[in-house]
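Hi support team,

I submitted a single chain yesterday and got back a structure, but I'm not sure I'm reading the token output correctly. Could someone confirm the output below corresponds to the sequence I sent? I've pasted both exactly as they appear in my results page.

Thanks,
R.
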Amino acid sequence: MKKSNLFHDCHVAPFVFLAVMVFSACTENIDESARYVFQYDVALSYLEKHDVYSQYVELVKQTPISPVSNSTVGQLLGTRGHYTVFAPTNEAIDSFLVDLYQRDPTLLSRPSWDAFYSEHKRDSIRKVVVHNSVIDSGDMDDCFMTWDFPTTDKAELALNNMNDHKVSVYYQGMDSILINGLCPISLTERDILVSNGVIHQMERVIAPQDITAASYFMDMLDKKQEGYLVMGKALQACGLMDTLSKIRDEVYEDRYLRGEIPENVHLYIDGHNGTELNWTPKHRLYGFTIFAETDDFWRSQGLDPQAPSAELLPALVEWIQQKHQYSDEDNFTTDEDYENPDNLLYQWATYHVLPFRVSADRLVFHMNELGYNWRNPYSLGIPMYEIYSTMGKRRLLKIYESKESNGVYLNRFPNLDNGRHGTYHELSCDPDKVGCRVNRESEQAVLSDIVNCCIYPLDAPLSYNDDVRNNLARQRLRFDGMSLMPEAMSNDIRLKASTDWENEDVYIPNTSIYNYFENMTMNEQTIFIYLNAYTYNWCNMHSDEMKAKGRFELTFKLPPVPRRGTYELRYKVLPNGDRGVQQFYFGSDPNRLPAAGIPVDLTRAIGNMRVGYEADTDDDDYNAEVDKRLRNNNVMKGAYSVCADGGTGDIERNRNTNLRYIIVRQTMDPNETYYMRVKSVLDAEMKEFYMDYMEYCPKEVYDNPETPEDIW
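Hi R., thanks for writing in. Yes, this is the structure output for that exact sequence:
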């Protein structure tokens, strides 16, 4: 998030404050005898002066900050800080109570706060209203003015509200802004500056239902409400509702609250964190992203979404077979045992689900690709994509966006201008390679009410058929190290747009304490840190890094390959003196991984290695010869597509430091699970493991005499 001095920017005179919040070990208490004295209103005093917020003021004064706090949100809003307050008017709160009474008259006898049958339920509803209305930006991040809202429609604000949820921003016309698609911000009473933040007047209470994906589909099935009835019936038949009802890892939650998992640790990593504190994730949340064909599509295919499952599902399986929505290499059954992972319906349905939640603006990350300008998010650079493993049988899903595609697509394979002097932009896209457009702007996109899931409608059917697998097997597949970790997305760790120390240097508990990342394990001597994209200066694909210190040993579960064949596994390095020397291991048995080559010195730049490195010249043939010379030594220059400074700075390939190591070159099978281990070979505590991105490159690409592998 951009840093600014709110009052300097707005030419407001400075203010004086006197006190701080005092926190005890078990409870949070605000010392009211030492309240801040401001020359200008704080949020609470401003709200108190305006009768239109009188009900809201009463609510914030009655609602505790947390279950272990003796202080109220009202007291919090009277202290120094950076608070964004989405303050509902009295009329908005009255309407909320009317809606609540109409939906569930067993809660209250009439639409009034003093008409609840249960005091506990009243307090819970009060908390919903208040905690969803306040974002505390902490000490480092600024509050959210409307001109700082994300420009992508339906994108989420970078920080959670006090209910620990994100809010999404919808745009209607030039000035109309809706929170979560339902709650309008006043056209006139917005961006109200106060000494400790900003107030936006709300015409409707922000109160998402917070249902699970399973509850959403079950409610749709019970009401026979069209939208995603077919997908809901398929997921139910495949026995996935229990999985889709998961919200958080309660074991981790309990151990974190008990202090068995440290809240923070003192790890000084390369001077990046001036506080010398690295913070642990507060939760281990589960999440899902579902890409789904709509019921309107199924009607166009002759299937009736309203038909009973016993009639609809066999017809759906028959359609999958007739449309050849599978690969000839797939082994599957077609009986009605849909919960069997070998069943065709199960394999088809799970390919539509990613095991993490991803919001509309984070389907494809844009950061350091050539031509991207982070100062102007509308200005996309070269195409970018993410490679993920789906639920069920692990298969690859490519999520792609370019300037020319006009949106996000699944499994799109365009023709790129990828010559040595090309632009790497799309030249064209064959009709059979367009893929499925993700209609994130559609009203049918479900982004806010489901606490553990986002659902996106598609404009074409999605499957892992032979065409998709063949196209994936004919291209270099580059994947960010953090894309291996579903928990990093569901828990808002990866590329979080925040400059707060808690979000920049994230400590992931050692496996001996708790295995936070399912796809990564560490030995007890490993200290693992995720270094967020706090700066654009690094020549990393997304500017972020995975780092570890100590006598580290880390094992990663890798994505599957799309087809059986010979591949290279490559590992990108940005060397410096802080790095260590590590041995790679690779194989399919994590307990018996053979060594892959000799140890790699992560301190050595490619320009300082005896591998025949030379910078590019004007002679393309000579440049190609240099590339071959490097490959004979199992190294490559960096990619031409990755730049520093948000796509406008140094190009990775042109730097004599960046390089890619070829870890292995061998036959791989899509039905095998492969692991890569990295182990320090130094007797040193503070030398560093580093990882940015990796690549699978098929032999058809790296050893193609007619069309050599591109430099991008």
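A quick pointer for reading it: The CA atoms of residues 33 and 159 lie 30 Å apart. Let us know if anything else looks off.

Best,
Support desk
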